[in-house]
Each structure stands twice: as structure tokens, then as C-alpha cells.
């Protein structure tokens, strides 16, 4: 029986090639898009689930309670030792420090090769908490002694050309000779760490003394602390016990700490502590569902539209003994055949676009992921659901046809599904497309607003170059003078980071004007020399620039500090004393205009700017826009002459600012792609309906032309039917899109506004696309001779 259904279904599909092609292509695009979204969601939901005992691994994090609450994915350096010694909750506790861009020298065949790599300084127990095995399958990783390291297999091959490198050495930052004690298997692509070089934690004091200390007086986000808890621990009990630690070690601080335990399973998807926003996954999951729904709507519309022409076939079948059940399964079989072809084509499309998808999102999907048992189950479920949902309604309608009416040709379109059902489904299609277009426009406006709005400093044509970590041996003053003499260079400043360097923010406690207690809020340190204001074009609003001395004595602050202190004018701060980090006493000599020291999701912070050489980690070089390539080359020559043992790299500041919104830009790109696909699928369905409507109304068009109607009148007649549906769809889509985007914009302190014209533009865009879709077929019939049109029926 089933074989017969399939055979008849195949014959019917071959008979109606155009409509079959439209259905297959529409469903294929929907399937292909949904497959990519499924792989994308699976990738992000599978992070760090490969570790043994992953349900007992936690990261220790901190809530910092000042005038508001800040969330830090770290704890003070002393926390790990105290938690391990004073409490009996964990089997293992370990710290790591992530350090960016250190230089590694490797000698191979008499030639020294240099690499600039991100390094993780790790305690040995870190590898007993996490499942990062050696290539021989053991977990006996030795990092207890200083100047030891383990590499990943890929890094070993990159550095030495082989993996048998235990006992070999490399030089770190032209100073420390490091011995390799093991080679790790390459870290899984879904690991929160993607570092290839791990060095003994004992070496961190050579690069970042605070992270290697036993201090309770601050937090650096570079340091992470992990614990493998003993079985059956109650997290709330542990967190309650940890409330005693700040009282004991930080009693005098206004920055009240609350230590929490963050499960490894949610680290990747916890935006509070820097993870990915899980709402984004839901959004794209819904978009994938929408694409399937739109393709299914196309199938239903075209099938019900064709039902009128298949009524005699149904009538004959019923006269010959077919019952409703047989007819119903016959049409489901047709749907299944279409769905199966579409699915196979969709898989091919997905495989074709996986490389581009990976490039866009910087992820590592592979076609082999398509053969995972869960993925096969997902595809099977989608195929069955789409076949049933798309085929059951037309099947039910056709199986209810009365044979006598069908054979006499007395059926109308209400008997075969009716125009009302099709209109409702088309409205749903248009509403989804309008929502996606409006959302894409609003996201694009917000990102454009964040990147192109005046940030309070000049980010254009500013080149940022790292300064090596060994500050004592750096001839910084001489280098700045030589760089300033390059014809294309306008200003040079040594600094801790750029004004908007969110990745290098340094918040600390502040005591104003010799008050007895610290302020409730923190202040951000922006270390920079006298040229800092000129280089970044930050205007002074009161006072003067500071003078550079051997010690830090004079500083600038921003207007925001005065607002937090409740002062009425910037001038009131001039000459006042500040104490920062508990022991640095300085005088305010100038006040600068507020600038965005972090991204637009956060408020502008109180900031002070002062010069201390030991804080400098970058050079900011303002260049002019003429002959940029030559200027950059000359900067590189001077930098390399000064630091011949290091690797020269540079970044433009505007690129760095844009990177703060890199995630949003990637998702915007995905929104654009899938919005375009939703429109494409919808247009395929519209084209199919137009073929049906034009074929149905060919005689009507001929009569209208005989009576004097122009081609424009006929095109307007057809277009208005769809424009009315678009306007109805707009009425439903506008409040939905507005609500969703308003919720998304709540995450930004500084945001664009949602204007009415965004929704109007989305509706007009759909109207134009619809007009283009229906014009060809309508005009084709409209310009045909009335005599030929009247003979058609």
C-alpha cells in the first residue's frame, strides 16, 4: 500500500513540475538554514561537557557591592589558598592566570624562531580538576616546578615540527628558559580555554606580581579560580559560609565582596560574568523554526490552491472506492516525498555554507557533525513534523470533496480550502518577514550608534602598539621622540590603554579630599603621559594638564567624578586630594570632559588620568591619513630597532572600539542572512500563488482588457490584493517587533530610539519585494492579446 502511495505521489509531482520545484526549493532553504542553526546551538550548548565530574566543577566568582553591584569572574589572589586550607568542601582547588601576547623563542636547526602567544600560568591541580590529558592518555602533568610547561600537540608541531618534545626548552620573553614536561592532546573546540601553552603558576610573579600574591585587596579578571567539589555538596551552604571571608579579610573596605560558585555547565552562557547571552540562542532557534513554518505555509497555500484542479481526480478516486483515510495518506505521501528531496538538498546547502558560517562566527563546525546520532534524530523529527503539518491540512480538505460536485465541475474554492485560509497563512508569512526586517534595522542602528557616536575621544587614525613587559630595559622616552619625528605622525603617548579600552579597565577604591572613609564607588585608572589628551583629543573643561614627575603627584579627573560626589561644578575639584588603591596620594589639577571608558552597555565611570611609567603597556600613535602605509612601516622600523627581541604588531583604535560590538555585529550579519532567506522562501510561495491566481483569472484579464483596462490597471488590481494582506501583517508584526527590540535595547545604557519609520520601512520593503515577485507573471498575461486570454478557458 505504502509503495503504491509513493509511486502515485511521484507521478503527481512530476506532472506539476513548477509547483513541485517551488515547494522543494522553499523547504530546502528552510531545512538548510535550520540545520545550520541547529549545529550552531549544539556547539554553544556543548561547551565543557566533556570533563570528568563536570557537574562538580565550579568557578569561584565575586559580586562587588559598592553603590551598585558589579560581577567579576574572579576572586582575590588569596582566596584559593584560604578556601583549600580552611574549608572541607573541595577535593581540588587551582588558579590560572591568562596572559596575552608573550614572546616565545624556539631554536630549531640553529635558527631562532619567534612566536607571540597567549599563555596560561596554571597550578598543577588545574589538570586534576579538568580533563585535558596528555597525548599518551595519562593525566600525570608536571607543573609543580618553576620554569616548566606543557604544550598542546598542535603547538608542539608548530614550534618544533614534532610532538616528541619533552625535555626540550624555549625562552619566554627573552629571559626565562622553560622546560617542556608534557604534550597535551589538542583542546576540544568547545573548551572555555583555547590556549596552547601552559606554564607553571610559579612563573606568574615574573610578569604579574599581584596575581601571584596572597592579597585580599583587589581582583584581576585575568586570574581564575576553580574547584572540584566533593560529591553531594550544597552550594547555598558553601556560599553562606564564604560570607565570613570578607568580614575577616576586607572589613575596612567599602567594596563589599560576596563570593559565589558558578557551575562549569553555565559558564559559557552566563552573560553576568562575561558569557554569551542565552537569549540570542533562543532567538536564532525561533528564527530557524520560523523559516520552516514559512516554507510549510508555502506548501499548504500552493496545495490548497491546486486542490480545485485536482477535484475531478479525487471524485474519480472516490467513485472507484477510495475512502477518506486512503486519500489522506496519499497526500501525506506526496508531502513526504517533497520533504525528503528538500531535506537532502538542504543538507547539501548546509554543508556548502558551513565554512562561511564558521568564518562569520569564529567557530569550528564540521560536516562530520551532521552524522551525530542526535542530529539524525533531529532531522528525522523535523521531516516527519513538516510532512505531517504541511500535508495533513490539504489532505483533509481534498478527502472531504463530494464526488458528484467534483465530477460535475460545480465545486468552488471554499470547498477546496477557501481563500480565507490562504490569506491567513500569507499574513502570517508577511508578519514574520516584517518582524525580522524591523529587528535587523534596529540592531543595525544600535551598533552604528555605538560605533559612530562621539565617544568623547578621537579614535580615528590612532595606532595602538604594545610595549614589552620588561619596563626597566625600555628606552621609552627616546622611542617616543623618534616616533614623533616621522612625517606622518602627529602625536605619541605612552599609556596603560586607550580611553575606551574596556579590556584594560582598572577600577580601584578612592578617598576624596582627605575624608575619613572611602567613597562607595570605584574610580577607573587611565594611566597616560602628558600627550594623552592631545593624542586622543580629550578636551579639558577646567584646570590644566599635569606635569610629569618621577613619581605620580598630579592627575586629571573627569566630570563624572564630580557628579558622583554631588558637586555642582568641575572647578570645585581643582586642588583637592585623592587617595587611590589605598596608598597613592595625588592632587587634582584638571578636569576633562566625560568620555566613554567602556562600551555602551555600561555607564561612564569616574576616571583619573596620571603618569606612572610602570603602568604603561601601550603606545598610542596619532597619524595623519596621507601615506598611511609608509607611516606604519616607519613606525615598525623604529619600534623594532628599540625592541629587536620582540615582535611588532599594531592595531587601529577604531577597530578595537568596533570589536567591543563584535558579537552583536556577527549576530546582525546572521539576522540579515536569515531575514533574506525568510523573504526568499516567502517570495517563492508568492510566485506559486501568483501562477495559480493568474491561471485562474486569465479569462477575467481578457474581459477587462476588452472593456478598456490598461496593463497598469491590471497590475494594480493584483497588487492591491496582496498589499492589503501586507498592511494587516504589519498591524500584527509592529507591536511584536517593538516589544522584542525594546527588551533587547534594555541591555544598553546608551541606546538609539525606536522610531515609527523603522516599521514603515519594513512594511514598504515587503510591498516592493512582493510587487517585484508578482509583476513578471501578471504582466506576462496582462500584455497577452485578449483573444488568446478568452480562448484559454
What would you report as the Rg, rounded to the nearest angstrom?
34 Å
Mean pLDDT: 83
The structural class is alpha+beta
Number of DSSP helices? 23
Report, as a whole number of angstroms, the end-to-end distance.
37 Å
Organism: Flagellimonas hymeniacidonis
GO molecular function, one term: transmembrane transporter activity
Membrane topology: Multi-pass membrane protein
Subcellular location: Cell membrane
Description:
Helices cover 48% and strands 17% of the residues. It is an alpha+beta fold and 793 residues long. The model has no long low-confidence stretch (mean pLDDT 83). The longest helix is centred in the middle third of the chain and has 38 residues, at 324-361. Strands 13, 14, 15, 16, 17, 18, 19 and 20 form an eight-stranded mixed β-sheet that branches. It is globular and about 100 Å long. It has three domains: 2-43 and 278-449 and 662-792, no CATH class; 67-253, no CATH class; 475-642, no CATH class. Helix 20 packs antiparallel against helix 23 (786-792) and helix 21 (711-745) packs antiparallel against helix 22 (756-782). It comes from Flagellimonas hymeniacidonis. Residues 286-401, 673-783 form the ABC3 transporter permease C-terminal domain. This is FtsX-like permease family protein. InterPro entries: ABC3_permease_C (IPR003838), MacB_PCD (IPR025857), Macrolide_Exporter_MacB (IPR050250). Residues 20-242, 431-597 form the MacB-like periplasmic core domain.
